[in-house]
Amino acid sequence: MSKATTVTKLKKQENLIGYLFASPWLFGLIVLGIFPIFMSLFFSFTNYNMISAPTIVGFKNYEILFTNDDLFWKSLGNTIYHVVIAVPLGIVVGVGLALLLNNKIRGMGVYRTLFYLPNVVSVVAMTLLWLWLFQPNFGLINELFKPLYDLFDMEPLGWYLDQKLSKLTLILMGLWTAGGSMVIYLAAMQDIPVTLYESAEIDGAGWLKKTIYITLPLMTPSIFFNFIMGLIGSFQVFTIAYIMTSGGPSRSTYYYAYYLFDKMMIDKAMGMASAMAWILLVMVLIVTIFALRLNKYVFYLGDES
Asked: I need a surface site. Which of 147, 178, 252, 276 has the fewest CB within 10 A?
C-alpha cells in the first residue's frame, strides 16, 4: 500500500470520526430544525386540524388571511406599532444607560450588575411584577403619580386596562430589560481608543462634543446590531401580552404571534397557523433586508470609505 493511499485512508477515518461526534447535533438540526420547517411549509397549503389527515387546499389559507380576516390585519397593525415605538426607544434607553455607566467611579460594577439583572429574571416573573406596578387602583406607579393627578384633577391612568395606553404600557415594561443591550453598548464604548478622546480634549472638546463626534459614531456597529435584533424580536412579541393583558382590552395588544398561537392551540387550525408563520418569516426577511441597507451609515474604525 502506497503512502498516498495510507494518508487518504487516515483522512477518511478522521472525517468519519468527526461526523460521528457531530451526529447528535446533526440529528437535532435535521429532525428538530429542518424537517419541521419544511413540514410547516407543507401544512400552510393544507387544511389540517392536527387530528385528521391534512387535505391540500393550495393558497386558500393565504387568501383567507389577506382578504377575509380582520383579526389578521388587527394583530399585524398592533405588532407594527410595537416595532416602530419599542425598537428606537429601546436603543435610546440602552445607549443612555451605557453613557451613564461608562464613568469610572467607585462601585460602578455594582450599578452595571443591577441594571443587567432584569435580563436574567424569568419573563413570566417580570410580567407579574409589572402587572402589580401598573395596576390602576393600587399599583405603585399610580401611587407615585398621585400628587400629579391631584394637582391637575386627573383620574389615575388605566395603563394596561386602557385601550389607548395598553400597547405603550407593554413597551415601557420592556424597557426594564434594556440592560442587555446596555452591556453591548458599554463594551463598544470601552473599545474606543483613548487617544481619540485625548486629541479631542487638546482641541478643547467637552463631554458633549466628544460624545457626539467620537462616542456615538464609533458605537454605530453595536447600535446597528441591536437595531436588527430588536426588529426581529419585536415582530415576535407574545409572552408579555399573553400574561399581562390576554390580548386586551378590545384586542389592543393582540399581537401577530398571539393570533398565530390562538390559531394553532385554540382553533386547532395548523394549516392556517403555518401560513401565518411563513408570512411572518417573509415580513421579517423583507424588513431585515431593507434595514441592512442602513449599513452605509455605520462607521467602522479604520474605515476610510
From this structure: 147
List all residues 6 or more positions away from 109 whose beta carbon is below 8 Å from its beta carbon.
none
Same domain assignment for residues 178 and 254: yes
> Using CA atoms, how far apart are residues 179 and 95, in angstroms rounded to an integer?
10
Whole-number Å distance between alpha carbons of 302 and 305? 9
Answer yes or no: do 122 and 215 share one domain.
yes
- Global confidence as pTM: 0.89
Structural domain including 34 reads 1-43
If asked whether residues 37 and 83 sit together in one domain, one would say no
Q: What is the CATH number of the domain that holds 191?
A: 1.10.3720.10
Question: Are 96 and 29 contained in the same domain?
Answer: no
CA distance 137 to 157: 9
| pLDDT score recorded for residue 216 | 94
Where does the pLDDT of residue 239 fall: very low under 50, low under 70, confident under 90, or very high at 90 and above? very high
Predicted confidence band at 91 (pLDDT cuts at 50, 70, 90)?
very high
Total domain count, the chain: 2
Encode 34-69 in three state secondary structure: HHHHHHHHHHCCEECCCCCCCEECCCHHHHHHHHCC
- Whether 38 has a pLDDT exceeding 70, the answer reads yes
In a domain, 275, yes or no: yes
**Which residues contact residue 131 at a Cβ distance below 8 angstroms, ignoring those fewer than 6 apart?**
160, 243, 244
Looking at the fold, whether 119 and 159 belong to one and the same domain comes out as yes
Based on the fold, state whether residues 83 and 164 are members of the same structural domain: yes
